[in-house]
Design goal:
The chain is about 5% helix and about 50% strand. The chain is built from one helix and 14 strands. It is globular.
Length: about 200
Amino acid sequence: MWNLRHISFPYIVQQLFFRNGGEFWAGREPFLDENAANDKAKPTLVTRGLFNGYSMPIWDAGGNVNEELHFRLRVPHRWNGTTAPSFYSISAISAGETENDRYQFELAWCAEDVENVVPDTICETLTCECICSTGKNAAWFAQIIAFELDPATLVSGQNMQMRLRRIAATASDVTNEIVLFHWDTRWKMNNIGSTSASGY
């Protein structure tokens, strides 16, 4: 079942790879930079029953310049290094909307490792749009927003920074704000353990 690739003595197994190319998906929840949100008091914190989230108006460079969320994550050492990872968030409309109205989010990200210059550029910008179609336009109906990242420049162990904004929809924008309740990333792994001292 296992291929032992890295063994340190006295006989401590550091990393196991699945035999015959076995792989599995795993989630890694990114760290939300709550300090930035708390400092600016934006986005607004919203509670729905036991669910706490952030209310997201459309971002703009004027009055809504701080209406965004920032995340950070270390690229898992157990990632297979080739399969595109994804960022997900659970979104919900805060009031009933007209059928087929839309809302859209934008994810910008970049990643770099230590012993390199911290970049001041964006590696990739992605968008995802949800449609409030029949049966999905009632207040608090939840949909997943998902972004598939280009793995070409990603390396295990890198520090990844992400910024999430709501932007204008391609047509017929919803009237009310969108609330985000949860966020996660998904990675395809091909080993257990790590040769890295950080072991992530």
